[in-house]
Amino acid sequence: MIGLEVHAQLLTRSKLFCADSIAFGAEPNTQVSPISLAHPGTLPVINRSVIELAIRLGLALDCQIARDHYFARKNYFYPDLPKGYQVSQHAAPVCTRGYMPLLIEGKTINVELNRIHIEEDAGKSIHDLEEDYTCVDLNRAGTPLLEIVTEPCLHSAAEASAFLTELRTLLRWTDVCDGNMEEGSMRCDANISIRPVGESSLGTRVEVKNLNSIRNVKKAIEFEIDRLVWVVENGETVIQETRSFDADKGTTFALRSKEEAEDYRYFPEPDLPPFHVSDLQLAAIKEQMPMLPGEMEQVFRDEFQLSAYDASVLCNDRKEALFYQEIVADNKLYKATANWILGPLKAYCNDNGCALYELPLTAVQLSSLIAFAESGKVSFQAASSRMLPEMLANGYEAPGTLAQRLNVLQETDDAAMREWVETVIGSMPDKVKEYRSGKKALLGLFAGQVKKLSHGKADMQLVNTLLEEQLNKV
Fold first, then answer.
1. pTM score, two decimals?
2. Which of 125, 154, 299, 427 could form a disulfide with 159 if both were Cys (CB 3.0 to 4.6 A apart)?
3. Shared domain check, 306 and 239
4. What whole-number distance in Å separates Cα of residue 65 and Cα of residue 279?
5. Contacts (Cβ under 8 Å, ≥6 apart) of 377
6. What are the 10-residue block averages of pLDDT along the chain, 474 residues in total?
7. Beta strand pairing call for 95-96 and 186-192
8. Can you tell me whether residue 429 is helix, strand or coil?
9. Are residues 88 and 220 in the same domain?
């Protein structure tokens, strides 16, 4: 039985209770203030955007949205927690219940959520910078987080990995969190327990903390399941504890025995008043909600007649999906545009570390290139391997002018095409006999020779027609 707790850093410009920046990569302890340093007499003020982003995610996950809220203090002492407590919504979450549909091996399951609540992040302890000291960076202290807590309804590392992948897509899609686990803006704790088949009560659980990649979540859960089974089968007792994951060894190790909730001595935060989400505020957030990935995939399948696979890949990123829509709005070449995006354009983006919408060509310019290639005036290969790189490197140029300059226009003169076809057929009499005896796959060999003879300028669709015409003559 697996339950996940995901911490997602919100896409705000400032911290939860003060105006300090939360930009990644600043020098240690430069994005702090008397409030985030917990100086005596300072008072917090709620960041309104945090509430709105939390509700946006809750709506996307079909949660129940609480209308009345308060924050509480979660008390514990650690060097990177300057106040000696963390302000959290643990007892009064902004969103409860809800679910995320997940397609696993052709079957849809609903991953049930327990709650989504808001809390502030702690600072960061750095143990390997100084030999005799631990260093503390408080830039992150007070950063707004959402904690997304599932029910213990996942049953394998593969299901947990798939859930995190879908959740990260949704967080990015709704502009709630950038999902960058390498920078710590999305982190995961996994709660794992086992029980004999047929029993309904949960076993003693262990928690693996601060997993910083989906791959590590999967590996940690797999290891921990095997470890727990070994413990039980050898007659030992499972200890409730917090563990960490060693990515180099692929193993977990104990950190501390698990604290119970009462150890934190929760009580309402006296410096922050309770607050209410009005009907007007909730309606405004709903109105600003984007079309969700599943809904957009359905549009791509129904209106653009794309396959489920194409629609799914194109809808991995909302900005890229919208960019696709911009292109096809101009050229109406739905499948051809999908092929270009999933082929040469995606390859270029992967090689250059950029997104589709960050290319140095506009949607209208890409549309004109795709339409030119589809017109048959150039081959797809020439358009994608010669014309596209030229435009990406040196700027847009009218496709007709560029094709002529690069000498890649396809030859469509019937007489020239027939001459090339007859030359190739005449040079391969043995292969002609084999073709006529039933080896129809040899058509590709003849076509390749015509393409070579024409230096890639032959219209291959017409070539194939002429080849079949000549080769099928008795």
1. 0.83
2. 154
3. no
4. 11
5. 400, 403, 409, 410
6. 96 96 94 95 94 97 95 92 93 93 88 96 91 94 96 95 95 95 92 89 89 93 95 91 91 77 82 93 95 94 95 94 96 96 95 93 96 88 92 95 88 68 82 80 80 71 76 72
7. unpaired
8. helix
9. yes
